[in-house]
């Protein structure tokens, strides 16, 4: 009985993620957990869990060697956690932006890339490559409210494009109308269709003298 009880005793270790590490995002915190799990052996991945901002490693006392190795891995990640690149889903949650906005601002240079990362999709041979971002840059964008400014700029640019399109459409209609008028044949003054009726009678009355 004592032996059975002994095997139920767990080895525990907890780490707390700082606000500078998560940037106020649970998605970012979960990404850090996944980064840790990716560095652990397959047998130890599920031994570390995230609860709020706390990471907890729990293993049976019989796995002390694996526990010690896992602690070393997690300590190494925690030492660099505030500099880990921010991945797309994390930056979208941190800045509260849409995928389309991320793509647009990345393309026009307002959202600077810190490089790319290639990963293999779980259970698939296919790999995907995506841009990652410097956490310090993301923090700065968050602090100075850059997203609101960019949205205002985009709204103004969109309104300007609508005005330009409306003017262009109006100009096109005017040109087409002018072309139709210019294509109408000029009428011959001697054409009976344009000769004033009763002209001879008007002349006979001497009104032109």
Order of helices and strands: HEHHEEHHHEEHHH
SS elements, strand count: 5
Average pLDDT confidence is: 87
Strand order of the largest sheet: 1-3-2
Largest sheet: 3 strands, antiparallel
Tally of individual domains: 2
Classify the secondary structure makeup into a structural class: alpha+beta
Helix content: 40-55%
Distance between the termini: 141 Å
User: Which regions have little confidence, pLDDT < 50, spanning 5+ residues?
Assistant: 1-5
> What is the overall number of helices?
9
Coarse morphology: elongated
Residue share in β-strands: 5-15%
| Rg | 37 Å
Describe this structure in words.
With 209 residues, the chain is an alpha+beta fold. It has 2 domains: 9-82; 85-180, no CATH class. Helix content is 54%, strand content 13%.
Features:
209 residues; alpha+beta; three-stranded antiparallel sheet; two-stranded antiparallel ribbon; elongated; Mlr2029 protein
SSE topology sketch:
Layout: H1 2-8, E1 10-16, H2 19-22, H3 26-39, E2 48-51, E3 54-60, H4 64-80, H5 88-95, H6 99-107, E4 116-120, E5 127-131, H7 135-143, H8 146-183, H9 199-204
Antiparallel strand pairs: 1-3, 2-3, 4-5
Helix pairs in contact: 3-5
Region (Disordered): 171-195
Protein name: Mlr2029 protein
Biased composition (Basic residues): 171-184
